[in-house]
Specification:
Largest sheet: 6 strands, antiparallel, barrel
Helix content: 10-25%
Number of strands: 7
Order of helices and strands: HEEEEEEEH
Number of helices: 2
Distance between the termini: 49 Å
Strand order of the largest sheet: 1-2-3-4-5-6
Radius of gyration: 15 Å
Length: 128
């Protein structure tokens, strides 16, 4: 017998198509450019800035085929986990001073091509 978590994971996988495009009901209206850092290997992991999609309730985040849920304050230097792998992540809005990493700086942070223009307009102050 499958657990409830297994059913939810399978359901979420079905909702994301091969191109990691979120379902139609989760398009731009419920999305935001966010900073996403993998904390599974330590305090500073691989980091990206990309468009994150929110579920209708806002409690689940979707990014590049991954589904994240809140750790509800239980994480150490992390606030979300990947429901499939259990890996912990720090996901937050990007900083205008581009110092998104925990200990400052932006070294190694990759900006997704599809949002690069909008992101750089935001950090330059053209967007609020």
């Amino acid at each position: 017998m499958r657990s409830e978590l297994d059913r939810r994971i399978e359901y979420q996988k079905l909702r994301l198509d091969q191109n990691n495009t979120p379902p139609q009901e989760m398009r731009e209206a419920r999305s935001r450019i966010m900073y996403i850092e993998d904390k599974s290997l330590g305090l500073e992991g691989s980091a990206r800035i990309g468009r994150v999609y929110f579920s209708k309730s806002g409690k689940t985040l979707y990014y590049r085929g991954k589904t994240f849920q809140s750790l509800k304050g239980r994480g150490y230097k992390s606030n979300f986990y990947d429901i499939e792998s259990g890996d912990e992540y720090w996901i937050s809005g990007p900083r205008k001073d581009r110092s998104d990493r925990l200990y400052g700086g932006n070294d190694g942070v990759v900006v997704d091509e599809d949002i690069a223009q909008e992101y750089f307009a935001y950090v330059s102050g053209a967007l609020k």
